[in-house]
Amino acid sequence: MTHPTLATFRPATTEPDWMRRILIGLVIALLTVLLFAPLIAVFAEAGKRGLAFALQSLTDPDAQSAIRLTLTVAAISVPLNAAFGIAAAWAITKFDWRGKAFMITLIDLPFSVSPVVAGLCFVLLFGANSAIGGWLVAAGHPVIFAVPGVVVATMFITFPFVARELIPVMTEQGRAEEEAALTLGASGWRIFFTVTVPNIRWALLYGVLLCNARAMGEFGAVAVVSGKIRGQTSTMPLMIEMLYNEYLSVAAFTMATLLALLALVTLTLKSALEWRFADQLAASSRH
Amino acid sequence: MHIEIDDIAKTFGATTALHPVSLTIPSGALVALLGPSGSGKTTLLRILGGLEFPTSGRVLFDGFDATGLSVQERRAGFVFQHYALFRHMTVFENIAYGLRARARKSRPTNAEIERRVHKLLELIQLPDIAKRYPAQLSGGQRQRVALARALAIEPRMLLLDEPFGALDARVRKELRQGLRDIHDQTGLTTVFVTHDQEEAMELADLVVVMSMGRIEQIGKPTDISARPATDFVRAFISV
Ligand SMILES: Nc1ncnc2c1ncn2[C@@H]1O[C@H](COP(=O)(O)OP(=O)(O)OP(=O)(O)O)[C@@H](O)[C@H]1O
Ligand SMILES: [Mg+2]
């Protein structure tokens, strides 16, 4: 009779040491090649003729206009999409109605349609040759080849982010807490702000950050609807491409660095919030 | 409060959750809705609380038609099956929620809210947990906090959906007595849902046996054990 010694037991979920090392190594290698290296290359390219020269390129009026436009478009489309996203997720998860499944598919549409195609659709819909577009141009509010078109295209592309983050969370939480608040005499708005929003705030934050990153970075749809007019409808991504095509590589890469930094700011913000509220996050996901 | 359920029926699309049922609940009674899964107990309780509206029929509170009253207007203290505590609020804030939600002129001062919450914590015998979050409580503690939160609004009646459903046998017994004590102290008309016949028989003044959306029998626990009205009741209480 042999007794198995303790050493022969290994927790079932622990991989052998070499396997773990290879996996971690692989992930780090991939991250380096695919994420860090390009980022560093962009920064290096921007700075190859000195910081002063790089910053000089940002003072160009067209560059300034592009930065302003990108920030403006994000500032308009992100809050609106956050509101729409909450409304859509609310309608889908808190009520039963016919057409719900169709609505979910519709929300995903911007993910599945190529941005260029989406841009073309807006040109057909609002362009000067269409009925609506002709009327808008006559009224002095052109949409295509103008800032409103950039906003509309960006909103379309970024529509799913908030709703997509919220739907699973709100489905998982169900309506019980809202119903409890109702029985305690709270009004609809009070319930929304004291029960619903606190319960979804993390998902909402992620959705808004993703939405913002994409809103600032969108290229395809905006390229089509904006007409890429320098100093008027050119956003940062469009400007980067134009500068690059004109062999103004320092200017192109400086603008690219700035765009990447804006994205990094949002990521840092997210990590900081996660770190600051780690205990709350843990408490709200348990239960 | 005296409750009268008058020919209440409820359908969800093609499913009939309740055939017309009628029931009179005397003021101050402790009533059990007893029946197997899917018999319509929760549906009837939610109709009383105003969370669901009946397809037909009326609900009368103290003789007044309450069928059209909103949830908020009914002022029913409701304890949900899985408690539905607000997970991002402390126990204190959970219990205070209904008081803070009142219109400004009837809202108690902060000091008064604090006093009442602590009194309720005493009542549920958990005086020291005000600062904890629901995730940091045991199942039995959550259940009692849910009860305190429902009582905080000074409800006109107390409705509980399987209040002890998710708890182990020993805690169930303890809390059963706790509910009886609180009922006797407050004198509130209380309706609770259960599928445990022992619980219904031991705790309730009046037991309503339900099956497949119908009321099979209404009576005192002793009457139901002694004289089951139908074969279903006989079979159900003998298990
Ligand atoms: N929101 C709803 N939509 C559709 N059908 C429903 C809904 N709520 C309840 N039902 C149906 O109504 C019937 C009665 O349900 P109810 O929840 O009242 O039963 P119950 O007696 O509480 O059962 P349990 O002991 O399992 O909780 C069931 O057939 C159920 O499927
Ligand atoms: Mg039920």
Automatic annotation (TrEMBL), chain A:
It is a multi-pass membrane protein. It is found in: Cell membrane. PROSITE patterns: ABC_TM1. The complex is composed of two ATP-binding proteins (CysA), two transmembrane proteins (CysT and CysW) and a solute-binding protein (CysP). The chain crosses the membrane at residues 21-46, 66-92, 104-126, 132-159, 247-269. The lineage of its organism: Bacteria, Pseudomonadati, Pseudomonadota, Alphaproteobacteria, Rhodobacterales. This is Sulfate transport system permease protein. CDD domains: TM_PBP2. Residues 67-270 form the ABC transmembrane type-1 domain.
TrEMBL record, chain B:
SUPFAM superfamilies: P-loop containing nucleoside triphosphate hydrolases. One of its GO terms (biological process) is quaternary ammonium group transport. Gene3D superfamilies: P-loop containing nucleotide triphosphate hydrolases. Keywords: ATP-binding, Nucleotide-binding, Sulfate transport, Translocase, Transport. GO terms for molecular function: ABC-type sulfate transporter activity; ATP binding; ATP hydrolysis activity. GO terms for cellular component: ATP-binding cassette (ABC) transporter complex. Residues 3-237 form the ABC transporter domain. Pfam families: ABC_tran (PF00005). The keyword Translocase applies. NCBIfam families: 3a0106s01. PANTHER family: SPERMIDINE/PUTRESCINE IMPORT ATP-BINDING PROTEIN POTA, SPERMIDINE_PUTRESCINE IMPORT ATP-BINDING PROTEIN POTA. This is Sulfate transport system ATP-binding protein. It comes from Actibacterium naphthalenivorans.
